[in-house]
Sequence to fold (392 residues):
Amino acid sequence: MKTTFKFRLYPNREQERKLNFTLDKCRFTYNQLLDFLNKSKKIDKNKTQHHILKLKEEYEDLNDVYSKVLQYENYRLFSNLKGLSQSKKNGRKVGRLRFKGKGWFKTFTYNQSGFSISDEGKRYTTLHLSKIGDIRMRIGKKQNRPKGEVKQITIKRTRTNKWFAMVVSEEKFKRLKKAHRKVGIDLGLEHYVYDSDGNHFDSPKYLRESEERLKWYHKQLSRTKKGSKNREKAKLRLSKVHEHIQNQRIDFCHKLSHYYVKNYDFISLEKLQIPNMVQNHHLSKSILDASWSMFTNFITYKVERTDRKLKFVNPNYTSQMCSSCGRIVKKSLATRKHKCKCGLNIHRDYNSAINILNRGIGKELPKYMLVETKPLFGDEQVMVGETRSTFR
Ligand SMILES: [Zn+2]
Fold:
């Protein structure tokens, strides 16, 4: 299965010039192909591909870009086209494909050939890109490097002018040691996750602090005038915080997802309501959504690389239903405890996690239609899972 790795690049000045040059020529080619397509009567992928050769005759500097990198722009154009007709099918209002302005083109791709990565076992290595050169690349720890055959490399320039290589490699399937354990995981507001074994993990303090900072920078941005210099500055600062948070988040989500995939054979998760995420203007909610979807994505791809099992379940009523007897115990968001007539008295998210596990393994509980409104027990029976700050 395919896995993508992201590595930071450290080009020298001449290489950076060539990277920017390539980016610009790709943009040029993309726009030219789009123009050609708009003028043609029939949509024909081979014809637009062939048009690249004509462009190369007319604009000689295109020959300074590796030919397959330019060809990839044809592929990109057609996959954008496909995406567009897909959204149309889904009933969304869409326009035509647009020409790409300077700031809107951030990546180019080497597919199958024109690149090589040397691996001397050190943290820094060289990425060879045809027509660009040997660029210094931070490849990091051994366990985080691609082990399979590298199929494709996408070069990306961030808004803060950093360069990255997204390396796609074909990873082999890994058989893990049997854990003989199953788990359900609840994603919560109070704790980042609560699981059916009663463990809960919080996102690290430094991450929560940066997320608070993000809100502040957003506010600063909204206070600047459109088109002003200050707005540009505020945008750049915001991008930097975004990048920083993203890295911290990646680190945390890697560790947490690794913990679950390593220690459990079967993982049950709630299905997230992602489609609404983009439209969500409430910042703190969207921060949380982004983080949760990263976590579930990481679990998904880690499970796919191994013989572990993963199931997504419908989250309806997982917090209201008693995981022991099936009664519905109504509670507001502020109620942190699940107290049931049957005697179960645990943290509400712990209860949800058990329900999520039960749904995942298809365990049915008796269905009570009874609605509890008042708590029936005191706090003496509280069973709270241990808190762990480190992953094992
Ligand atoms: Zn109960």
In short: The pocket of zinc ion is lined by residues 322, 324-325, 327, 340, 342, 344 (CB under 6 Å).
